[in-house]
């Protein structure tokens, strides 16, 4: 029997990186902001999933971060896209558009 639960997990994993870059592209964000935005659409993600992904994206030079100090809370790391990150996001958006077109075409066969 085909594992239908795995379908959702694999599809969500496949777009998570794109969604994270898209969220960061809207403005500099704190990690919990990313989690909050994803959870609005039932894309459950935990810090244990997010932080390794953010670290990899930084290592790949798609994003950078800076620390903000405050008297009200511990220092926070804010993320923003690099120019390379913006280029990769444009390519991802192009791929998304191609996939959407293909899906619509097949649905209308």
Short description:
This protein has 109 residues and is α+β, with helices and mostly antiparallel strands. The protein is 63% helix and 13% strand.
Task: Describe this structure as you would to a colleague.
With 109 residues, the protein is an alpha+beta fold. The chain has a single domain (4-107), classed as Winged helix-like DNA-binding domain superfamily/Winged helix DNA-binding domain (Arc Repressor Mutant, subunit A, Orthogonal Bundle), CATH 1.10.10. Helices cover 63% and strands 13% of the residues. It is built from 4 helices and 3 strands, in the order H-E-H-H-E-E-H. It has helices at residues 4-25, 31-39, 47-59, 83-107, and strands at residues 29-30, 63-68, 76-81. A 3-stranded antiparallel β-sheet has the order 1-3-2. It is globular. The protein starts with a helix and ends with a helix. The model has no long low-confidence stretch (mean pLDDT 90).
What secondary-structure arrangement, pairings included, does this model have?
Layout: H1 4-25, E1 29-30, H2 31-39, H3 47-59, E2 63-68, E3 76-81, H4 83-107
Antiparallel strand pairs: 1-3, 2-3
Helix pairs in contact: 1-4
Q: Please count the helical segments.
A: 4
The H-level CATH homologous superfamily, spelled out, is Winged helix-like DNA-binding domain superfamily/Winged helix DNA-binding domain
Over the alpha carbons, how many angstroms does the gyration radius reach? Answer: 16 Å
Estimate the global geometry from the Cα principal axes: globular
At the first level of CATH, what is the class? Mainly Alpha
Please outline the major beta sheet: 3 strands, antiparallel
Here the CATH topology equals Arc Repressor Mutant, subunit A
Average residue-wise pLDDT = 90
Helix content: 55-70%
* Strand arrangement across the biggest beta sheet: 1-3-2
Q: What's the domain count?
A: 1
Low-confidence stretches: none
The N- to C-terminal Cα distance equals 28 Å
Please write the string of helix (H) and strand (E) elements: HEHHEEH
Number of strands: 3
């Amino acid at each position: 029997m085909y594992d239908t639960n795995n379908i959702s997990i694999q599809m969500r994993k496949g777009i998570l990186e794109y969604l994270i870059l898209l969220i960061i592209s809207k403005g500099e964000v704190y990690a919990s902001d990313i989690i909050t935005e994803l959870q609005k659409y039932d894309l459950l993600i935990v810090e244990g999933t997010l932080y390794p992904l953010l670290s990899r994206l930084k290592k790949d030079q798609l994003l950078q971060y800076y620390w903000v100090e405050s008297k009200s809370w511990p220092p926070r790391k804010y993320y923003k896209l690099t120019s390379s990150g913006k280029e990769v996001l444009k390519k991802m958006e192009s791929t998304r558009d191609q996939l959407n077109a293909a899906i619509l075409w097949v649905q209308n066969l």
